[in-house]
């Protein structure tokens, strides 16, 4: 399990990086490498060129501004997890982050890299979706913001163009007084989710945000469940109904870790638990 | 085989493009030309002769190859040597004293019979050590230790004695 | 004598080296200019090979050679059938490189040797093989049906072996029975997943004609014998070294894997060191696996629960080949009655070829399967008769006074009768009952149920035939300079701590510190005779051989020291590295004794002066060595067990099932264990805890998944779920020590014990927890969340 040969480039500027991506249709971005390098070692990917973005100025750091937590492309999972500013702004992030693989992986892997990898069972894409977040793409045609809802297309597929680099992710700050929760089931600690749910409950506005991963070909917002709760309120029967409604969103076929029927059952339970917990944390 | 067959001197190294990498390994400055695709694990083991870092899966699950990069634990099999440019890498070989005396964590492993075949041990030690040396408080509850160890597979011990060793090492270091 | 080392919790000699990262595993051995191997492997479970084109691979820069079946000379053969048995006809084994046909995904088709592994993998991808895929049937029960695609055209219905064994008179007992319980149980395919994959490196020295092979094997002596035979070299010209080995668990006892022959061959052919370091994916698709068996077991009982007879018929998946013979199935079939008296047994198996990775022993070797079958059946019988699970066992366990319990008619995997030698089964059961506080559990369970929580208690008993022959040996020598004791044996260790437990045995006899006893094993130059490390046999077989050798050296030492100290041998004691006249301060170091027993010409140190030909201590009335005398303090002896010695134990757990998530959390896990006299309880517990962790894997996590075409779809650690620390419970262990009457040390094996009953314990516990749901019992492991979902929803 050794990687195939590639051309290695380590540009110092974003402009150069974009040019290097644009100049080779087989080029890929190398950030933390925690998803890409396993794929290379297994020879599931064979990029002709790797553009290592770690030496580019201005791609590091976390800031909280205008109701958004801005996470630059080379920010490691662990940096975001430990960021007190980010935690104050939205505690859902740290809670979810504890479930992303293991600390040594989080020490190297980047948040934006995980979003771009877009594994359908990965936690951070779901969190971006639950917080109505977005990513910023920069390419030869300029800079654009892509809403999470539009970014994740399919398992390991996003709307990023091959010559674009996602320079930052933007998670929304938790509304004042809102509660949050993250519920997941994996067979082993740190594995990809069999199913996971992120919940944000805002009693002030009556808004409920629910997203799930592991159940479909991409992370999904559980709109129907959100509406049921918005209409019916945070009472046990409604939460149960919201869980039942969430089952509709499960499209993942039977696989070696879970049958579709079991995933539906599981998701319903996780939705109920997540909303209950989030509601209990509202102020 | 014909005894008269010519035996041309075989090629010694691959024709992969090379790239310069400069880093610090166990406190020593290293400047080397490496294949662009060489994994840090292979670089440490086969270019620098630091074979204490083991390779168990090469896809990031088993943790046997864990080293400390810039103070934090990382998988050397999921890092290209060239990505380690400018970093400070520590391997298992740096943990004991120069005279071979064991670090309290290593002592605790021995006391608690926390290793059997010893293959996963260097990765375990480096992961635990990064936590022991960190500024952040460690969760020394049973569950907390197990979560810390998750990410390192051991096939021999059943982990129980490793949990005990972590606790013993943390106590020993705290009392120093 | 100071404190006895035997029986003490002594830290391991090997640990500092391993902890400092100074271990020496195969890939750690620096071999200048080594070439590296990658294999081209079959992508089809069954196919005809039309052609293999290696042109592009051969010309790839950095490639030294590409081998196929056409250019490996004498190695183009069917590999040996290691353990022949009359139940097999025309047993099929693999060829090092496929000729004509491939039989499983992962089978080796071509071997590329290149300057590094990266380049070798590049070139392997350039080998162009043209296949015609053939039909396959992966399902074990369908594979034996008429008309199913055949793995080998030579074997109708894919039957590789068929064996019936009978003990007592089952027909008569069945006719007398008042009740029959019948269950079908299944254990799925798994793999050892040692942390170090397999590895082989070789150097051929053209000048001396010597071949040196480093092999991460459990059987270096056997590998040497086979290599010498197949490569047609004298055994003395072949040296096989198993250095530190990163776990074995049975997978590394098989010989030969293709690489074990091809790497030495290539090293000789190319005149350069050659290395093959198996990667994790190859370990999944290319190294042997175990476990799938489907049993239909029937217990014929009286209404009291006393089991009169047992009938069991099972299918055993042997994969595409059967190089290790029927060992796994045979162990399962002869362990099927477990710890119970059951006087009448009829047991049958069919070993079935499937187009999958071949099957050879993995820790447990048939015992976990047999235990799962009998223990699930016992639980069911208890249920059927309205008895408690402990009570049904009390009524059937062999009593202390019934040993040895011969199961006449059953032959174990060593070809010898099954005879359980000793134990305190009833006491063990009661210890578990107490430790788990079973008496109060029902109330606790009821209370939890009222609060919506589902607790269950699971338990299972097991026996383990250990310490199989044929034999092992031990050589012991006290070194004249240092007084350190060197012990050589033909085994190899993969983490079991041989270097410490064998040192403990020797330490007591020779009065030296455990750390002054140095074990050399895993090197055919260190000891010439023996078999391998497998079947929980090292402590029993090598341990007793070393013990016997130590007794001889002890006597030699006492005699020599008595001469030197001018005392009677009866008055000499050995302690603290010296021989002492009892009750005095007169002593001579073992180094000096060892030197004195070696008549010298040259005085190279103080002790040596006393041993030279002109020294007063030397004999001056004839040759320095008398007829029949040998210099030094050394001895070699062997131990060959009369039959297996049977360890046993009983495990119990309290677990909680969450029916909403379908998860299982083990809250307590208790193990009562008896492996006879313990040499080092710390190491025994380590073996048991590690075994239980593997058992937890087999009970709930680890399952090799094949699709219907025979592709292994989880050949990685992402999807083949080896448990982390977070999935393994804390284990509470209590020991019993019932000595084995069969060997001088009274020891029994412990290597495999832990893993055997865990599947049955967990299934039993989940059944108990989910009783209110009216679900059918769990008779199939591993138990997955989807299976729990089906049980709680009646789906």
UniProtKB/TrEMBL annotation, chain A:
<keyword id="KW-0560">Oxidoreductase</keyword>
<dbReference type="InterPro" id="IPR036318">
    <property type="entry name" value="FAD-bd_PCMH-like_sf"/>
</dbReference>
<dbReference type="InterPro" id="IPR016169">
    <property type="entry name" value="FAD-bd_PCMH_sub2"/>
</dbReference>
<protein>
    <submittedName>
        <fullName>Carbon-monoxide dehydrogenase medium subunit</fullName>
        <ecNumber>1.2.7.4</ecNumber>
    </submittedName>
</protein>
<dbReference type="InterPro" id="IPR016167">
    <property type="entry name" value="FAD-bd_PCMH_sub1"/>
</dbReference>
<dbReference type="InterPro" id="IPR005107">
    <property type="entry name" value="CO_DH_flav_C"/>
</dbReference>
<dbReference type="InterPro" id="IPR016166">
    <property type="entry name" value="FAD-bd_PCMH"/>
</dbReference>
<dbReference type="Pfam" id="PF03450">
    <property type="entry name" value="CO_deh_flav_C"/>
</dbReference>
<dbReference type="InterPro" id="IPR051312">
    <property type="entry name" value="Diverse_Substr_Oxidored"/>
</dbReference>
<feature type="domain" description="FAD-binding PCMH-type">
    <location>
        <begin position="1"/>
        <end position="176"/>
    </location>
</feature>
<dbReference type="Pfam" id="PF00941">
    <property type="entry name" value="FAD_binding_5"/>
</dbReference>
<dbReference type="GO" id="GO:0043885">
    <property type="term" value="F:anaerobic carbon-monoxide dehydrogenase activity"/>
</dbReference>
<dbReference type="InterPro" id="IPR036683">
    <property type="entry name" value="CO_DH_flav_C_dom_sf"/>
</dbReference>
<keyword id="KW-0285">Flavoprotein</keyword>
<dbReference type="InterPro" id="IPR002346">
    <property type="entry name" value="Mopterin_DH_FAD-bd"/>
</dbReference>
TrEMBL record, chain B:
<keyword id="KW-0408">Iron</keyword>
<dbReference type="InterPro" id="IPR002888">
    <property type="entry name" value="2Fe-2S-bd"/>
</dbReference>
<dbReference type="Pfam" id="PF01799">
    <property type="entry name" value="Fer2_2"/>
</dbReference>
<dbReference type="GO" id="GO:0043885">
    <property type="term" value="F:anaerobic carbon-monoxide dehydrogenase activity"/>
</dbReference>
<dbReference type="Pfam" id="PF00111">
    <property type="entry name" value="Fer2"/>
</dbReference>
<keyword id="KW-0560">Oxidoreductase</keyword>
<protein>
    <submittedName>
        <fullName>Carbon-monoxide dehydrogenase small subunit</fullName>
        <ecNumber>1.2.7.4</ecNumber>
    </submittedName>
</protein>
<dbReference type="InterPro" id="IPR051452">
    <property type="entry name" value="Diverse_Oxidoreductases"/>
</dbReference>
<dbReference type="InterPro" id="IPR006058">
    <property type="entry name" value="2Fe2S_fd_BS"/>
</dbReference>
<keyword id="KW-0411">Iron-sulfur</keyword>
<feature type="domain" description="2Fe-2S ferredoxin-type">
    <location>
        <begin position="19"/>
        <end position="95"/>
    </location>
</feature>
<dbReference type="InterPro" id="IPR001041">
    <property type="entry name" value="2Fe-2S_ferredoxin-type"/>
</dbReference>
<dbReference type="InterPro" id="IPR036884">
    <property type="entry name" value="2Fe-2S-bd_dom_sf"/>
</dbReference>
<dbReference type="InterPro" id="IPR012675">
    <property type="entry name" value="Beta-grasp_dom_sf"/>
</dbReference>
<dbReference type="InterPro" id="IPR036010">
    <property type="entry name" value="2Fe-2S_ferredoxin-like_sf"/>
</dbReference>
UniProtKB/TrEMBL annotation, chain C:
<feature type="domain" description="Aldehyde oxidase/xanthine dehydrogenase a/b hammerhead">
    <location>
        <begin position="20"/>
        <end position="135"/>
    </location>
</feature>
<dbReference type="InterPro" id="IPR037165">
    <property type="entry name" value="AldOxase/xan_DH_Mopterin-bd_sf"/>
</dbReference>
<dbReference type="InterPro" id="IPR016208">
    <property type="entry name" value="Ald_Oxase/xanthine_DH-like"/>
</dbReference>
<dbReference type="InterPro" id="IPR046867">
    <property type="entry name" value="AldOxase/xan_DH_MoCoBD2"/>
</dbReference>
<dbReference type="Pfam" id="PF20256">
    <property type="entry name" value="MoCoBD_2"/>
</dbReference>
<protein>
    <submittedName>
        <fullName>CO/xanthine dehydrogenase Mo-binding subunit</fullName>
    </submittedName>
</protein>
<keyword id="KW-0560">Oxidoreductase</keyword>
<dbReference type="Pfam" id="PF02738">
    <property type="entry name" value="MoCoBD_1"/>
</dbReference>
<dbReference type="InterPro" id="IPR000674">
    <property type="entry name" value="Ald_Oxase/Xan_DH_a/b"/>
</dbReference>
<dbReference type="InterPro" id="IPR036856">
    <property type="entry name" value="Ald_Oxase/Xan_DH_a/b_sf"/>
</dbReference>
<dbReference type="InterPro" id="IPR008274">
    <property type="entry name" value="AldOxase/xan_DH_MoCoBD1"/>
</dbReference>
<keyword id="KW-0500">Molybdenum</keyword>
<dbReference type="Pfam" id="PF01315">
    <property type="entry name" value="Ald_Xan_dh_C"/>
</dbReference>
């Amino acid at each position: 399990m050794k990687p195939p040969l590639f051309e290695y480039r380590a540009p110092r500027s974003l402009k150069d990086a974009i040019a290097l991506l644009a100049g080779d249709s087989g080029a890929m971005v190398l950030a933390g490498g925690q998803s890409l390098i396993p794929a290379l070692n297994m020879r599931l990917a064979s990029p002709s060129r790797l553009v290592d973005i770690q030496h580019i100025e201005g791609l590091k750091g976390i800031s909280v501004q205008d109701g958004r937590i801005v996470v630059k492309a080379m920010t490691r999972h662990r940096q975001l997890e430990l960021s007190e500013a980010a935690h104050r702004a939205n505690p859902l992030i740290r809670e979810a982050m504890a479930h992303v693989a293991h600390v040594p992986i989080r020490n190297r892997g980047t948040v934006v890299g995980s979003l771009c990898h877009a594994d359908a069972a990965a936690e951070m894409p779901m969190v971006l979706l639950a917080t109505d977040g977005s990513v910023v793409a920069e390419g030869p045609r300029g800079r654009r913001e892509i809403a999470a809802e539009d970014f994740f297309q399919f398992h390991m597929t996003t709307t990023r163009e091959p010559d674009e680099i996602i320079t930052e992710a933007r998670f929304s700050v938790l509304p004042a007084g809102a509660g949050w929760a993250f519920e997941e089931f994996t067979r082993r600690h740190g594995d990809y989710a069999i199913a996971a749910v992120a919940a944000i409950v805002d009693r002030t506005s009556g808004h409920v945000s629910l997203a799930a991963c592991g159940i479909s070909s991409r992370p999904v917002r559980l709109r129907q469940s959100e509406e049921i709760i918005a209409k019916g309120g945070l009472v046990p029967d409604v939460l149960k109904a919201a869980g039942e409604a969430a089952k509709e969103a499960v499209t993942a076929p039977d696989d070696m870790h879970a049958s579709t029927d079991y995933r539906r059952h599981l998701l319903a339970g996780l939705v109920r638990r997540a909303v209950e917990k989030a509601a209990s944390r509202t102020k | 085989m014909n005894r008269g067959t010519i035996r041309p001197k075989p090629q010694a190294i691959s024709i992969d493009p090379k790239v310069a990498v400069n880093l610090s390994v166990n406190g020593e400055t290293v400047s080397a030309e490496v294949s662009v695709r060489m994994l840090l694990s292979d670089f440490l083991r086969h270019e620098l002769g630091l074979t204490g870092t083991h390779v168990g899966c090469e896809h990031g699950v088993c943790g046997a190859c864990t080293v400390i990069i810039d103070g934090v634990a990382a998988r050397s099999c999921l890092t290209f040597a060239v990505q380690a440019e400018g970093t400070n890498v520590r391997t298992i070989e740096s943990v004991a004293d120069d005279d071979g005396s064991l670090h309290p964590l290593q002592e605790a492993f021995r006391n608690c019979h926390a290793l059997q075949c010893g293959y996963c041990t260097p990765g375990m030690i480096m992961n635990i050590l990064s936590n022991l040396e960190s500024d952040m408080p460690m969760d020394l509850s049973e569950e907390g230790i197990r979560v810390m160890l998750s990410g390192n597979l051991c096939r021999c011990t059943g982990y129980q004695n490793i949990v005990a060793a972590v606790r013993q090492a943390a106590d020993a270091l705290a009392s120093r | 004598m100071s404190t006895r080392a035997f029986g003490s919790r002594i830290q391991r000699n090997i640990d500092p080296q391993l902890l400092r990262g100074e271990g020496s595993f195969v890939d750690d051995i620096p071999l200048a200019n080594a070439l590296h191997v990658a294999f081209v492997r079959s992508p089809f479970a069954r196919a005809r090979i039309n052609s293999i084109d290696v042109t592009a691979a051969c010309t790839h820069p950095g490639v030294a050679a590409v081998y196929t079946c056409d250019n490996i000379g004498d190695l183009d053969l069917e590999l040996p059938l290691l353990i022949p048995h009359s139940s097999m006809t025309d047993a099929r084994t693999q060829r090092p490189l496929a000729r004509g046909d491939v039989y499983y995904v992962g089978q080796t088709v071509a071997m590329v040797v290149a300057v590094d592994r990266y380049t070798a993998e590049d070139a392997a991808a350039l080998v162009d093989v043209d296949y015609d895929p053939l039909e396959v049937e992966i399902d074990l029960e369908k594979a034996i049906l008429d008309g199913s695609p055949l793995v080998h055209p030579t074997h109708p219905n894919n039957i590789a072996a068929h064996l019936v064994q009978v003990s007592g008179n089952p027909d008569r007992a069945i006719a007398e029975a008042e009740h029959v319980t019948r269950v079908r149980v299944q254990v799925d395919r798994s793999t050892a997943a040692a942390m170090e994959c397999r590895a082989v490196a070789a150097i051929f020295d053209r000048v001396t004609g010597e071949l040196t092979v480093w092999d991460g094997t459990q059987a270096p002596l056997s590998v040497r014998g086979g290599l010498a035979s197949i490569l047609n070299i004298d055994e003395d010209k072949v040296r096989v070294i198993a250095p530190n080995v990163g776990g074995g668990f049975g997978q590394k006892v098989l010989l030969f894997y293709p690489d074990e022959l091809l790497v030495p061959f290539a090293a000789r052919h190319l005149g350069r060191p050659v290395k093959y370091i198996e990667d994790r994916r190859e370990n999944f698709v290319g190294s042997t696996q175990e476990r799938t068996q489907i049993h239909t077991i029937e217990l014929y009982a009286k209404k009291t629960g006393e089991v009169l007879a047992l009938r069991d018929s099972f299918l055993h998946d042997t994969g595409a080949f059967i190089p290790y013979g029927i060992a796994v199935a045979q162990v399962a079939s002869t362990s099927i009655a477990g710890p119970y008296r059951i006087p009448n047994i009829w047991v049958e198996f069919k070993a079935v070829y499937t187009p999958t990775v071949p099957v050879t022993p993995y820790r447990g070797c048939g015992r976990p399967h047999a235990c799962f079958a009998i223990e699930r059946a016992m639980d069911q019988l208890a249920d059927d008769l309205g008895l408690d699970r402990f009570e049904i066992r009390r009524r059937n366990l062999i009593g202390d006074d019934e040993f040895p319990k011969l199961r006449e008619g059953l032959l174990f995997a060593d070809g010898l009768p099954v005879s359980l030698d000793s134990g305190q089964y009833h006491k063990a059961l009661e210890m578990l009952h107490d430790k788990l506080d079973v008496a109060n559990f029902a109330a606790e369970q009821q209370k939890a149920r009222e609060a919506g929580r589902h607790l269950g208690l699971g338990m299972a008993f097991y026996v383990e035939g250990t310490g199989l022959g044929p034999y092992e040996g031990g050589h012991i020598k006290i070194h004249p300079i240092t007084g350190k004791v060197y012990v050589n044996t033909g085994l190899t260790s993969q983490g079991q701590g041989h270097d410490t437990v064998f040192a403990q045995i020797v330490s007591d006899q020779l009065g030296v510190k455990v750390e002054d006893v140095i074990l050399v094993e895993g090197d055919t130059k260190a000891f010439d005779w023996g078999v391998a490390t497998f079947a929980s046999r090292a402590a029993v077989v090598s341990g007793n051989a070393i013990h016997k050798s130590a007794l001889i050296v002890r006597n030699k030492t006492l005699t020599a020291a008595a001469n030197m100290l001018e005392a009677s041998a009866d008055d000499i004691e050995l302690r603290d590295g010296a021989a002492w006249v009892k009750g005095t301060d007169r002593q001579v170091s073992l180094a000096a004794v060892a030197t004195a027993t070696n008549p010298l010409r040259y005085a190279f140190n103080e002790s040596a002066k006393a041993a030279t030909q002109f020294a007063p201590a030397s004999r001056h009335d004839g040759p320095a060595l008398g007829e029949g005398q040998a210099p030094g303090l050394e001895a070699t002896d062997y131990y060959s067990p009369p039959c297996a010695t049977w360890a046993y134990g009983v495990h119990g757990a309290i677990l909680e099932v969450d029916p909403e998530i379908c998860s299982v959390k083990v809250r307590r896990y208790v193990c009562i264990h008896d492996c006879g006299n313990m040499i080092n309880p710390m190491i025994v517990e380590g073996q048991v805890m590690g075994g239980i962790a593997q058992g937890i894997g087999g009970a709930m996590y680890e399952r090799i998944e094949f699709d219907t075409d025979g592709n292994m779809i989880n050949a990685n650690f992402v999807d083949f779920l080896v448990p982390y620390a977070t999935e393994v419970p804390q284990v509470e262990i209590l020991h019993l020590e019932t000595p084995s009457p069969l060997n001088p040390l009274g020891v029994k094996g412990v290597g495999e014990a832990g893993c055997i009953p865990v599947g049955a314990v967990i299934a039993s516990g989940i059944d108990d927890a989910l009783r209110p749901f009216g679900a059918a019992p769990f008779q199939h492991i591993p138990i997955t969340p989807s299976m729990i979902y089906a049980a709680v929803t009646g789906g």
